[in-house]
Amino acid sequence: MYTETExxxxxxxxxxxxxxxxxxxxASANAIDLATARDLRALVRDIxxxxxxxxxxxxxxxxxxxxxxxxxxxxx
Length: 76
Fold this sequence. Notes:
Blueprint: E1 3-6, E2 10-15, E3 18-23, H1 34-45, E4 53-58, E5 66-69
Parallel strand pairs: 3-4
Antiparallel strand pairs: 1-2, 2-3, 4-5
């Protein structure tokens, strides 16, 4: 399954349990301003329940990657 949600500053792709969120502000080195933070928050809140890995990247290779384990969302 492939889905894409696009906001002005943030792009999300989801496939095979992996969600990639890309900050799309290369002119500002993908800095997170208030509007970007709001967009990012909205996308994170709406991450698919089948997501196993989240990768946070920056457009134009001007950002470091961050990977997170989402096990905390599962109930035992």
